[in-house]
Write a structure and sequence with these properties.
By secondary structure, the chain is α+β, with helices and mostly antiparallel strands. The protein has helices at about 25-40, 100-105, 105-120, 205-215, 220-225, 240-245, 255-270, 290-300, 310-340, 345-365, 370-380, and strands spanning about 5-20, 45-50, 50-55, 70, 80, 95, 125-140, 160, 165-170, 190-195, 200-205, 235-240, 270-275. The chain folds into 3 domains: about 15-130, Double Stranded RNA Binding Domain (2-Layer Sandwich); about 135-300, no CATH class; about 310-385, no CATH class. The chain has an 11-stranded antiparallel β-sheet. It starts with 5 loop residues before the first strand and ends in a 9-residue tail after the last helix.
Length: about 400
């Protein structure tokens, strides 16, 4: 049976909203105290506020942006920023919705959740202004097991775009021996970016490679693919910044909902990816890859969701966390064996396991408070991944 390229995901992929309003003084005081705790601990500190679990970060933003506090509801949630101001006529609040949240819940749900979270903190919100919004399509061009050399390759020269658009290329690896300003190395182009982030931008990149490099499994769950067997997945992403949105008179989230189709249609009319076999670029037909992308964008609903429940992604994040700690443990165990002069395999199996058992037993018996304090600190750090008790 011949393999046919297919669409694995499509929908809104990023959303940033500025909000005119403020948090109450009591909440700002509370955030201030927890921010100090986070700085002392060296990591985010979890706190339940108004029935919502937030991770309060160690630092605010730069002085230029002026947000004193940053807090979020998990890697697949929403990140908030707040200024330490009691003037509700100022733009004191900002929300950035993660791509994973949008994939699981959709645009309309994100809109509601932003207000639900802020109201839980006692916020007053008067007006909203969209800073940027992204839409994407994920395409699988190759069958499972296809060698990279025979797989679909992104060719920057095959993009036909307006002459005023800037184009950047990134490659698989960084060649540290070159003095070139370009990031070179390897044989395969992983990313091509056209346009500017503040206005309108197209970014086409290998999403699978990005996920593997970050050691994450989130998007494999969204795609419904096994991490080991999944071939390259190419993301076509349109990013619309504040400047471009204002040119289209798009200010709030309702405007985005009503006009996203027009934004994408206009963008597809400015850029395309052509078949490389035709020397006449202006007359060349679209590549199959671009035909798929156009079809997916044309059929896209702004409220499209992947069908994956949020708990499933949280479970994947927990698995990633467990693997990280297991990797750290194995590295420490190897060093501990060497420090104790254990080198024989049988010796390690017998004596080392007994040594670890004694160490854990002593800590639990004679220093339970210290152990429990450490465990609670870790629990609070990953508050958004914990299982709620009934």
């Amino acid at each position: 049976m011949n393999f046919q390229p297919d669409i694995l995901h499509k929908g809104c992929d990023g959303l940033t909203v500025a909000l005119m309003g403020k948090l109450p003084f009591s909440t700002l005081e509370r955030l201030d105290k927890i921010k100090v705790q986070a700085g002392e601990a060296g990591h985010d500190v979890g706190e339940e506020i108004g029935g919502v679990d937030f991770n309060i970060m160690q630092q605010g933003t730069s002085a230029k942006q002026g947000y004193s506090f940053q807090f979020h509801t998990g890697r697949d949630g929403i990140k908030y920023q707040a200024k330490k101001s009691g003037d509700s006529s100022q733009w004191n609040l900002r929300a950035r919705v993660s791509a994973l949240y949008l994939a699981q819940s959709g645009f309309a749900a994100a809109h509601k959740q932003i207000y639900a979270d802020l109201y839980a903190m006692g916020a007053v919100v008067i007006e909203e202004s969209v800073s940027d919004v992204d839409f994407c399509v994920d395409i699988r061009m190759d069958a499972e097991g296809t060698p990279r050399r025979k797989a679909f390759q992104l060719e920057p020269a095959q993009f036909v775009h307006h002459s005023k658009m800037k184009r950047r290329q990134f490659y698989s690896n960084v060649d540290l021996e070159t003095n070139d300003l370009s990031i070179l190395g390897g044989r395969y182009v992983e990313t091509v970016t056209l346009g500017g982030r503040g206005s309108r931008q197209l970014c086409v990149y290998n999403k699978r490679t990005e996920q593997v490099a970050k050691r994450r499994g989130d998007w494999f769950e969204v795609w419904g693919k096994d991490k080991e067997d999944c071939p390259n997945v190419w993301r076509v992403e349109f990013r619309f910044g504040r400047t471009f949105l204002r040119e289209w008179n798009i200010k709030d989230l309702n405007d985005v909902h009503d006009s996203f189709g027009d934004l994408i249609k206009d963008s597809l009319g400015c850029i395309r990816y052509i078949d490389g076999n035709d020397s006449n670029r202006s007359r060349a037909a679209n590549h199959t890859f671009w035909d798929l992308a156009e079809k997916a964008f044309d059929e896209m609903s702004i409220d499209h969701v992947s069908g994956l429940v949020r708990g499933r992604v949280s479970a994947t994040q927990k698995d990633d966390l467990v693997k990280m700690y297991e990797g750290q443990m194995l590295g420490i165990m190897a060093g501990l064996c060497e420090a104790n002069g254990l080198s024989d395999t049988d010796e390690i199996k017998d004596e080392f396991l007994s040594m670890i058992s004694d160490l854990v037993t002593k800590r639990m018996t004679f220093e339970p408070d210290k152990f429990n304090k450490s465990r609670r600190r870790t629990r609070d750090k990953y508050i958004n991944l914990r299982t709620k008790e009934a």
